[in-house]
Structures are given as C-alpha cells and as structure tokens.
Amino acid sequence: MAAYLGKRLLGLGAVWLVLSVVSFLLVHLAGGSPASVILGVQATPEAIARLNQIYGLNLPLPVQYVRWLSQVVRGNLGQSIFLNAPVAVAITTHFGVTASITLVGFAVAAVIGFSAGIFAAVRRGVTDMLVVLASSGASVLPEFLLALALLVLLADVLPVFPVQGYIPLVRAPGAWFMHICLPSLAIGLIQGGPLARFVRNGMLQTLATDYVRTARAKGLPRRAVLLRHALRSALLPVITAAGLIFTALLGGAFAAEVVFNLPGLGRMLLDSALNRDFPTLQGGVLFVGTLVVLVNLVVDLAYGLADPRVTYA
Amino acid sequence: MHNRTWARHARLWVGGGALCIIAVLVLIVPFLVHLDPNAADPNSLMQPPSPDHAMGTDMYGRDVLVRTIYATQIALGIGLGVSVGTFLLGMPIGMAAAYIRNLDGFIMRTVDTLMSLPPVLLAIASVAVLGAGLLNIVVVLLIAWTPLTIRVARAATLALSSQEYVEAARALGSTLPRMLYRHILRNAVDSVLVQQTVVFVGAILGEATFSFIGAGLQPPAASLGTMLGETQAVVVQAPWLAAFPAGVLVAIALAAVLVGDGLRDRAAIGRGA
C-alpha cells in the first residue's frame, strides 16, 4: 500500500509540475512581450520597462519560472489586473459558487447513478433498458442546454427558483440552496448517466459471480447480498471513474455558471481571459488543475482502501 | 440471434443514415437556393414558425432555418475535422507510447495532465492566447480529445503486441514498419474508430458549449452555440429560437452515438464475442 501510494504521489507530482509549466507559459504563448500583453496596446515604453523590472520579465524563462513557482507555493499568485485584488483572494471569493454547484452536483450524480445503476442490474428487463437509454440520452446533452431548459421551465415558466445570483451558504442556507439547486441539478443529472452505467455494468458482473450465488444460497438477506457482496466489488471501476466524473462536473459547473449568471470561478476566468488579465488566468488554471490532481489523489487513496489487493508498486 | 444481429446493424444504419441525411441537406440546400444567414428582415422580428419561415425568425428578423443550416455545417465540420485530427495525432503517438518504452512515461504523464483540465477551462484560457473564434475551438478540442485517442490506441497496441500471431510475425522476421502497419494498426483501428465517434460527439457538444458561453465563435456567426446563447434572454417568449438549434444538436450527437454503439458491437462480433 505504501509503495502504491508513493508511486501515485510521484505521478501526480509530475502532473502538477507539467501543469505549473503550462500555466506559467500561458502569458508567453500569447505572443508579444508579456509586459505589453499585460499593459495593453497603449503602453508606453517606460511603463513596459518598469513592469519588466518589477516582475523580472527580462530574465531567462527558466529563471522566471522558478521565481514564479517559489511565489506560487507560498500562496502568492500575484495581483489581479482587473479585479483590484490579489489573485488568491479573487479565486477564494469566486470558488465558493463553483464548489457549491460541483459538490451538490456530485451528490445528485451519486444518488441517481447508484440507485439507477443498482436498480437496472437487479431488475433487468424494461428498467434496465430505460436506464441504459436515459444514460445514452445524458451523454448527448451538453450541460448548458439542460441548465437552459431547467432555467426556462422552473425559473421562468413556473417561478419556483431564482433566475440568477448567488447567496453564500453561511449567510442563508435556504437561499443558498435555492440559488444553486438548478445548476447543480443540471450537471448532476448529466453526470449521473455515465455513473449509472458504470454501476450497472459492475453490478452485472459481480451478480454473476459464484460468491454472490453462494451468499444467496446460504440465505443471506437480499439487501446484504446486494450491498455487501455485490456492490463492494462493483465499486472499484466506479471509484476509478469518479475522478473523470469530477472533472466533467467542474467543467459543467463553469458552463452552468454562465447560464445562471453566477459569480463563480468559470465566470471570473472567462472575464479575465477576455480582458487578458493573465495573472488571474494563470492562477485560476493552476488552481483548478491542482484541485483535479488532489481529487485524483483521493480517488487513488479510496481505491487502495476499497481493494486490499492494491499493493503493487 | 439473427434478430439481435440485425438490431446491432440497425443502430449503425439508423445513426449513419441520419448523419448522412443531415450532412447532405445542409451541404446541398445552400447551393440550390441563395441564403444569407445574417440577412435581417426588420418587418418580421421574432415570428413563430410559418410557411414563409419554417423555423420562425429571431429578434433581428433573421431566418432561424437558414441560420440552423449554416450552424449545422460548422458543427459537422468541426466534429469531422476534430475526429480526423485527433485520429491522425493520437494513433501514431499511442502506438509509439506502447512500443517505445522510453517515451511511454513522458507521453502518458502529458496525457494525464491534459486530461486533468476540463475542456471548458482550456477553452477559456485559450481565448486569452488565441482570441475567440474557430481557431481556438479547434485547437482546444484537439488538445482535449487527443489524449483519449492516445490512451485507446496505446491500450489496443499493447493488447495486440502480446498476441501470438504478432509474435509469430516477429519470429518470421517481419520488419517493424510492416508489423506496425499490417498487424497492429489494422487491428487496433477498430477500437480507435469507436473512440473517434465519442470524439465526434464531444467536439460538436464542445463547440456549442464554448460558443454558448462566449469562449468560441462570436455572434453574429451562426453556430448552434451562439444561436442558443443569443436567444437565452428571450427563450420564454420565443421558444422556437432555442428549440430548433438544440434539437439539431441533440439529433446529430444521438446519431453519432448510435454509430459508435453499432461499430462497437460490430468489432465485438468480429472478435467472436
């Protein structure tokens, strides 16, 4: 287990390093000197020289990268050009929205995915067909379209939910829930589709094994057979998929934020990209990437815990 | 059994047929009648579907049917271009990763990194670097989807290279290029093709999403995403503005999924499963 974890940590560390290089290079990919990119077309040569001096933009790229990285690991992502705040602060204030939608969306996806998947595998027949069909349907529906449909149906036509805006959880939990309910539902419903398929396929495989038949034959309650014997082994491929589903939920949350006009990370990053606010964009990309890497680490840990055989190096 | 085989092929035929019909319609109609997707008629703003405008008109008096035709051309073009592009990039890289052990670690780490970023985030970041338009959409979709093709190509190559017939070919002194082409590529192509239908769907939905949120094609360009984005504010009063582009988007994606399922089953039958 320790060797397995060590190897995974090393791999994820490498992924994170590549990610940091990519975020660092974003401003250099844009063409033109970073200072003129940041200051815009009307920048005077003096202003450019000053910025180069302050940020060390004249130094060789590797040196700049190391300097940038040493600031980043200390939590200093620089100053946002348009938001008038440190990038780290801007990210934290906007992240609450994205995190709320993604996590509630994850819960929706998990409830739908597990119940539909188990139901389909146990019942087979028409139930199974409907679940597989609905899962295919979810795979051809982009998140923003479902979000748009929910917005029209449940916020405009039947004014049950607020159309836009956000209220933090700590201020008013009820209002918070109402504001993030529809976007979370939109992304959760769509990602519940592939999850249901993974659960269904895993359950179908384990339900056909000898040990499940033995468990049934010795008269164990149906519930115990399904949940303790069948589901536990069926969980392994599902855990592997959880990382990908999380990434997809995060992307879906960005699109849903735009539909519901929520002040989340996606909205903020889109605005900083349109304004060529590179410090914010770089910090945001690195932040989201780090988040995904951490989630994958948790997935690997969970995999190791769920499957005692995972000890390979 | 006979019925089931027919049902498998039916998906391939229905999906492929639907895609062909849509493609032929949107490619031929603009040749037969001269249509301008941006021609605005101030006398018929937001008109519901009628004999004059089969899909109605939008808030500038533009014909929704004409715009949908052009938007579908773009969607199909991007879907096809990106699935061919990711195939041409991913297939050799995936095979190289499977065959050249020194490259494997580097390629797969890069693949992992690229897959750790949601494509929407890549699209947003690319706007700052490349500007918003066709170019950034295609570049982002290639970056986002090639890693998956690499994975599938690598896995298929690894599985095949340990097969007895490949070892036999090697023992018979088959050259590496001949082996890669005749014995690996031709057999690995089946599973990669199934993956490319997934890429096709992903690319079409991706274009719509990017353009919808403003990180892709920009209005007044007629794309399924911009059409849906532009009409978001008035969709309750004029549902046809969203219904037709959304319907076409889902129909194309559904048809491609059917083709993918059909190809997957055909490959399974070919392997005797």
Number of helices of chain A: 12
Total tally of structural domains of chain A: 2
CATH architecture label of chain B? Orthogonal Bundle
The helix content of chain B, as a percent range, equals over 70%
Could you say which overall geometry of chain A the principal axes of the C-alpha atoms support?
globular
Given as residue ranges, the uncertain stretches of chain B (5+ residues, pLDDT < 50) are none
Mean pLDDT of chain B: 88
Order of helices and strands of chain B: HHHHHHHHH
Q: What is the terminal separation of chain B in angstroms?
A: 13 Å
Brief sketch in words of this structure:
The complex is a heterodimer of chains A (313) and B (273). By secondary structure, chain A is mainly α.
Report what the structure shows.
The complex is a heterodimer of chains A (313) and B (273). Chain A has 313 residues and is mainly alpha-helical. Chain A has helices at residues 2-29, 34-39, 45-55, 61-72, 87-123, 125-139, 143-157, 173-207, 210-217, 222-259, 265-274, 278-306. In chain A, α7 (143-157) packs across α10. Chain A is globular. The mean pLDDT of chain A is 86. Chain B has helices at residues 2-32, 64-99, 101-115, 119-130, 134-161, 164-171, 176-213, 224-230, 240-270. Chain B contains 9 helices and no strands. Chain B is elongated, with a radius of gyration of 22 Å. Chain B is 75% helix and 0% strand. The interface between A and B is large, with 48 and 38 residues.
